[in-house]
Queue: 2 jobs
Job 1
Amino acid sequence: MSPIPKTAPFAEEEIDILNRVVGTASPIQRAWLAGFLAGVDASGGVLAPQPLAPARPAEPLTIVYASESGNSEKLAGDIAKAARKNGLKPTIIDMADLELSALTSAKRLVVIAATWGEGEPPARAIRAYNELMGEGAPRLDGVEFGVLALGDTAYVEFCAIGKKIDERLAALGGKRVVDRVDCDLDFAEPAARWIGDAVKVLTPPNAGGRVIEVDFGAKPASAPSTDIVEAEIIEHVDLNSSRSDKETIHLALAFEGGAPAYEPGDSLDLYAENDPAYVDELLKAAGLTGDDKLRSDFINSRDVTTLSAKTVETYAEKTGHQYVKALIADGQVKEWIAGRQLIDLIATFPIALDAETLRALTRPLAPRAYSIASSRREVGDEAHLLISAVRYDSHGRARKGVASNYVAERLKRGGRVRVKVKPNRHFGLPAPDKDIIMVGPGTGVAPFRAFVQERRATEATGKSWLFFGDRTFTHDFLYQLDWQDALNGGALTRMDVAFSRDTPEKIYVQHKIWDRRAELVEWLDKGAYFYVCGDAKAMAKDVRAALVRAYVDVKSLSPEAAEQAVATLEREKRYLQDTY
Ligand SMILES: Cc1cc2nc3c(=O)[nH]c(=O)nc-3n(C[C@H](O)[C@H](O)[C@H](O)COP(=O)(O)OP(=O)(O)OC[C@H]3O[C@@H](n4cnc5c(N)ncnc54)[C@H](O)[C@@H]3O)c2cc1C
Ligand SMILES: Cc1cc2nc3c(=O)[nH]c(=O)nc-3n(C[C@H](O)[C@H](O)[C@H](O)COP(=O)(O)O)c2cc1C
């Protein structure tokens, strides 16, 4: 609703109060208020005892989301908004804070769940997820529910967590009233459709007395926001030495008219282009070399590398290729696609293709997230990123990650790139007087450069301790001079490093955590915050396990009690992760 103008015949504070109350009111509340005031006027302005029927209390809707990078959280907000418009009273719960008793008392329940790792729940949601899956989970007889699953078809365990939660709610006696939808990375439209359907089904006929139709077709509730901005690349530096086998680019971006509002802990979504050489090879394999429009679309806006089980099925359907059909019939698809890309499918099972068929095998090219490695308080209108070029060989082909190689190989100083801020309100700095421990090997160190810059700029009094690791001290010490400056200036209190290839036995950050366990536990006992960023597959789990062992050793706890101690840190939001 547009705000009440400053010219209205009220005092300024009254206009503020009215805007706060009326501005956030649902259409039903506004309609009631309008009718009520009209009634008061009609009766000569006397606030007589209520002749109207008492307002029916709004029917509740519980919305639970399990999110890591914020997509499910955003959709939870969208569904709450739509529910409110329909006269429901939504309550949003982050699965990180969920007590299962909240589900038993829910009449209607919506769960929006993302899948992470290799088919795992988002890190913050693990505790509540395990409780829900565990033997002690309460019965949910009669609870009407619907699940929206978020995922990425590039992963074998596509939407695994949403699927499991959906099954579990039904097994506990819940009544599925909305069918689950499994969304790929381009989830905006299917999610908006699902939200529209779910709210309709979950709204009882008499909710708030009147149902207001919401047109989700016209404008998806979570349409990709348009605040993509173009930035100029003012620094493009490989932080590894020329003798390293890695390439990690420090990218400094400058924004005309000011950097978009970002906070330490946020990421930037970067919109990349595909490698023209790969696209040419793909078009050649498909026999479509002359199609310039397709070539341009494929370079700029389609995901032409991902090969999912769904892609293989579409290929079989559209081409009728006998060998691909046989692959599916033999249940070999999951195994065959591992380590392969779209080009392998086309090259291994060639068949005449037209442009539309080839396009149907691709999905929109998704942006890639990169942790912001700077603080606006120190770098002004810039944002810095730290991007490691992903390169590997598989099935006899050299492969290159799309976005990281776009940055490493094709972006240059003076060039331009499109980005969008991806806020992460679950990975921010605590109050300036709190101590922080940061564990960030490899590119995981990026947000901690932002943390240290911010703490220097704000003259924070809390102590800070960084654990960093990479392959070698000489060739892979990312931002070495920055850390030395910060240590000299006091913005960083201490730093421990682990270089895995400098010694005969491999040393990682978790080994350093173990070595420093007594002081580390002391810092935590005194209220320090513990941050982990970087590799989710191994590092984050090894670091957590090292911390549990540290509690066992330092505080003479049983493994169960030590696990509880770390779980308590997580619940208190003093153990925070941003891993990928
Ligand atoms: C919140 C967040 C923050 C992030 N921050 C950073 C950051 O600060 N710096 C950074 O560099 N990255 C960061 N990432 C990762 C980044 O978003 C990209 O995933 C990464 O750069 C790879 O993207 P790409 O387009 O180059 O590769 P893609 O084209 O997406 O290819 C990557 C895929 O290739 C496959 N693959 C990779 N290596 C191998 C292998 N050895 N064998 C077989 N298959 C393999 C895997 O399927 C992998 O998913 C972050 C991710 C998230 C979610
Ligand atoms: C490191 C990483 C691992 C992921 N693992 C899976 C997976 O195993 N299965 C899946 O379907 N999606 C997976 N995804 C995709 C996410 O589920 C998807 O991006 C989702 O929109 C994230 O939602 P959120 O922002 O609410 O966390 C993964 C994404 C990342 C970055």
Job 2
Amino acid sequence: MLKRKEKYVVSVVGATGAVGNEMVATLEERNFPAEKLRLFASERSEGKTLQFEGSDIPVETLKEDSFRGIDIALFSAGAERSKIWAPIAAQSGCVVVDNSSQWRMDPTVPLVVPEVNSHDLKWHKGIIANPNCSTIQMVVVLKPIHDVARIKRVVVTTFQSVSGTGKKAMDELLQQTTDLLNFREVKCNVYPHQIAFNCLPHIDKFLENGYTKEEMKMVNETKKIMGDDSIRLTATTVRVPVFRGHSESINIETEKKLSADEARGVLSAAAGIVVFDAPEKNVYPLAIQVAGKDETYVGRIREDESIQNGLNLWIVADNLRKGAALNAVQIAEKLLEMA
Ligand SMILES: NC(=O)c1ccc[n+]([C@@H]2O[C@H](COP(=O)([O-])OP(=O)(O)OC[C@H]3O[C@@H](n4cnc5c(N)ncnc54)[C@H](OP(=O)(O)O)[C@@H]3O)[C@@H](O)[C@H]2O)c1
């Protein structure tokens, strides 16, 4: 458990990555009470520095005693690194908020979206998991609807940006787009197919049941965060040539009837959500508008006329912020409140 202090020694592991960079920026923007910030990445980043509150902070490599004296560590360096280093950090008395998939479904580790289940932070044992980006923005919207109308089933299709894969994927989209516009041959290193001017119905590995790991993360993580195994959910996750911001088309079947207007009212009153829904004026959430924003945007709210109690929604959020860095920093802020 975190002890109450005026300021904390904070660290970001994976600081040079797409999410890590955003974590450093988010800590600064939100005036997180950091007495000191320590940054870690791989040997490839040795000698690099990153800016924080006007100072150049050196990027270090991880060692057994790296976490001594650190109060909170935000991890974003991939599952393999989290598997090894998160328990070492927790052993040193540091509270870890882990952004990788390593600990998410571990029953001894809380999986938290502060707007939905901050109460689960009470039982952490040193590691707290940050959910998958596409799950976070979905549950922020599902929870208020579940509370008033009880969700029976969800059908979700995602349109996920390349920043969800990390920095190398953003470079690949830029390079392929430039090559194609200059009549040069396209090279594929990060994805199995060309991502520029294309959509790939393939995120993470394929499993035996025909779904991808990303799709099953959405199914399993939703149940854990919402604390309700009875919600049925099926997902199709698609990578699209967008740099930043995940969009999702969601169909929800509820036990109780909720009109589109009632749903707008419920969502407008909920924390972390902006209802952006005036289709007659061409107003609906777009990835390019939502990039850099903290809230989850919802539009195209309408009743599903093919069933008795159904809604269709379009949900967009910045995957690097609410889908990753911001959610992790919000968890850390909640921990300070509880300290
Ligand atoms: N991108 C998203 O929207 C998103 C959302 C939710 C969760 N996540 C998760 O967040 C994690 C990072 O994602 P990302 O998109 O930021 O990836 P990324 O851009 O590829 O960054 C990876 C980071 O990990 C560091 N790293 C790699 N090997 C390391 C090692 N041996 N020791 C210490 N640091 C090491 C890298 O350092 P170098 O620069 O030195 O190589 C870099 O800072 C992944 O687990 C991912 O699943 C990502």
